[in-house]
Specification:
The chain is an alpha/beta fold. It is built from seven helices and 17 strands. The mean pLDDT is 95.
Length: 343
């Protein structure tokens, strides 16, 4: 499938630099087969029914952008995926200057040995492991803001770029649809009879990579680690059997659910990597509704929402969002999509 089918004009001033506050009063575009309706995120409970289940990704963003040096050479590392307790893969700049056996020094005594390099991706073994390494990153690392936010991270981003229910360290990008939720909104979902369950998908830096191929068949998705517990899988299956709908909060929750669901629509417990790449023509097995932010042109995430709700419908919805001043991507506004039979 040609990548240019998913292109559109997005004015630069539509990309949000800071989130809306309060979080749950950001705009929400409700997209259905009949059209679209402009709402606020705090109106979400009224769009759901008792017995529905909302699936949240409880990953926690770590300060994964590291600025260091190898001798006199300045080196930037964006951690991508944990390999072991002390070893990570990361995107390096300048990658061509790195060789196996070299050491990169970071602030406050943190260092890493280069074990290998494959193109821009270096495998690094740190001089700290597990909780000790996480503590060192909190001191030495920077919040890995997406590259289209053209400013340095600051103290405010430490809170803004984290969901209120974040619990499991490991993401290097936020599950951004979840940034809109507040304790008050979560309580409103409870009051509306909507069940809430949590899964974990550690979002990798690959989510920022543009699709450089001309055809989707030539694009490689980077693997991300995820987990769905037996208890959560059972709760989702029970809700569906009782007529409830599954709303994935974010594309990360959706991708993990679809990875773990068989052809009969049964969600199974899951622990491991997923590199699922969803484009139009994909048959969804688990998710009925998707809450997600607005995505960039030619991105894998825009391809996913087109697969979910229909390409022409999403192009119309995005044209409306752009003309109406919706804010795009990580710190932007949200949409609520229903899985469409009209693709």
């Amino acid at each position: 499938m040609r990548v240019d089918l998913f292109d559109f004009d997005l004015p630069a001033d539509r990309i949000a630099d800071r989130p809306h506050m309060p979080r749950d009063q950001a705009r929400l575009l409700h997209v259905t087969d009949e059209g679209q309706t402009d709402l606020q995120v705090d109106g979400l409970p009224a769009l759901l029914r008792p017995g529905d289940v909302a699936v949240f990704n409880n990953t926690r963003v770590i300060p994964a952008r590291l600025l260091g040096h190898r001798g006199a050479v300045a080196v930037e590392i964006l951690l991508h995926k944990r390999v072991t307790l002390d070893t990570w893969e990361g995107f390096a700049r300048p990658a061509k200057r790195l060789r196996a056996g070299q050491t990169i020094e970071f602030p406050d005594g943190l260092s890493a040995e280069v074990l290998s390099r494959d193109g821009p991706v270096a495998t690094l073994r740190f001089n700290a492991a597990g909780p000790e390494l996480m503590a060192a990153l909190e001191t030495s690392g920077h919040i890995p803001l997406p590259p289209y936010i053209r400013r340095a991270d600051d103290a405010r981003d430490r809170a803004d770029y984290q969901t209120v229910y974040a619990a499991q360290d490991g993401a290097v990008a936020a599950p951004t649809a979840g940034l809109h939720f507040t304790p008050e909104l979560l309580s409103s979902l409870d009051a509306a009879g909507v069940a809430q369950v949590q899964v974990t998908l550690h979002v990798g830096a690959g989510t920022f990579l543009p699709v450089s191929a001309d055809d989707t068949a030539d694009h490689k998705m980077h693997a991300e680690w995820g987990e769905i517990s037996e208890t959560v899988a059972k709760a989702i299956n029970t809700a569906r059997q009782n007529g409830g709908r599954v709303m994935a909060v974010g594309t990360t929750s959706l991708r993990l659910l679809e990875t773990a669901t068989d052809d009969n629509g049964i969600v199974h417990p899951f622990v491991g990597d997923t590199s699922i790449f969803i484009t139009p023509g994909y048959r969804f097995k688990a998710v009925d509704m998707l809450m997600t932010n607005f995505h960039l042109p030619r991105s894998t995430l825009f391809m996913l929402v087109c697969a979910f709700a229909g390409t022409e419908k999403m192009k119309r919805a995005y044209a409306h969002a752009i003309s109406s001043g919706y804010r795009f991507y990580s710190y932007g506004d949200a949409s609520l999509l229903s899985r469409s039979a009209i693709i």
